[in-house]
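ARCHIVE CARD
CATEGORY: sequence design from structure
SOURCE FIELD: tokenized fold
FIELD CONTENT:
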């Protein structure tokens, strides 16, 4: 049937004003346009809503019944539009955010208190995953991804970038010595990722180039696990600054091979599906987090 809101509005305004001419003036349309809208509506309903003569219009019994339904529908649409306007000014609703557990713990969690205070009507759900997820399948509004993006179906917003550094604990270096060159790593215990393999290409100059492929003596799927292993003196590791900033400031992890280290930045993006206008609850989250990360909170 596909009755349109324009047709409903034309019908109710004609009834309220008492004529096609007055309705056309109120709607900013032509008289013929309003007349055609009424004709389409009656055609779709297969009934006559208004008895029209040259002097007056009168609702049929079907017209009186349909008028009540039409008013309810239009009022409902007005209510929804009003509520959406309120939500734009005061964002509300459930927001599902996914990030790798290290980024969630070290970067997002410290920002959540301030975000919730600024937007008390948003119900946050925080999910962690150290693998790439399907946003639709996991019912996720925003995912934070670190590194190069490969999924072209998603919209991405840059949030920050982080340097990679090669690090070890002072306790490990006291026991095993400090490597003076990349070649010295062959006699050290190296900590690496189980996947992806690209995370085990360390940004170090050597005879073969500026990416040093390590052979890990101990591997883990999570950067947070590798961080704790490094803090425990179990080996040398290469991790992002956001994960180790506090450890480096306290001297619990120290940078090694600084002369051989190539400055490499890992991009941090928020990714999301966007078919129409971005929902206010998502937009304000991206703005809030993006502003704070741009100010250097992950450095």
């Amino acid at each position: 049937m596909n009755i349109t809101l324009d047709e409903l509005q034309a019908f109710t305004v004609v009834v309220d004003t008492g004529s096609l001419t007055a309705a056309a003036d109120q709607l900013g349309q032509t008289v013929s346009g309003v007349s055609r809208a009424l004709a389409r509506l009656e055609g779709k309903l297969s009934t006559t809503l208004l008895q029209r003569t040259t002097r007056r219009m009168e609702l049929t019994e079907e017209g009186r019944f349909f008028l009540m339904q039409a008013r309810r529908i239009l009022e409902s649409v007005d209510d929804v539009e009003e509520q959406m306007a309120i939500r734009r000014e005061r964002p509300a609703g459930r927001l599902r955010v996914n990030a790798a557990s290290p980024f969630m713990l070290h970067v997002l969690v410290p920002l959540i208190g301030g975000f919730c205070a600024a937007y008390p009507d948003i119900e946050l759900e925080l999910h962690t995953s150290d693998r790439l997820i399907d946003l639709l399948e996991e019912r996720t509004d925003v995912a934070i991804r670190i590194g190069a993006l490969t999924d072209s179906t998603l919209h991405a917003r840059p949030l920050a970038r982080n340097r990679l550094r090669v690090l070890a604990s002072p306790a490990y270096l006291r026991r095993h010595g400090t490597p003076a060159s990349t070649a010295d790593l062959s006699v050290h215990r190296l900590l690496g990722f189980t996947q992806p393999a690209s995370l085990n290409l360390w940004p170090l100059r050597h005879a073969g180039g500026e990416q040093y492929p390590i052979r890990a003596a101990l591997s883990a799927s999570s950067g947070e696990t590798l961080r704790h292993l490094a803090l425990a003196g179990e080996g040398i590791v290469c991790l992002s600054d956001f994960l180790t900033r506090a450890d480096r400031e306290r001297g619990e992890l120290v940078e090694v091979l600084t002369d051989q280290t190539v400055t490499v930045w890992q991009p941090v993006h928020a990714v999301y599906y966007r078919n129409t206008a971005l929902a206010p609850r998502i937009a304000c989250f991206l703005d809030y987090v993006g502003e704070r990360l741009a100010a250097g909170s992950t450095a």
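CARD ANNOTATION: The chain is about 40% helix and 20% strand. The first helix runs from residue 5 to 17.
SHELF: design records, drawer C
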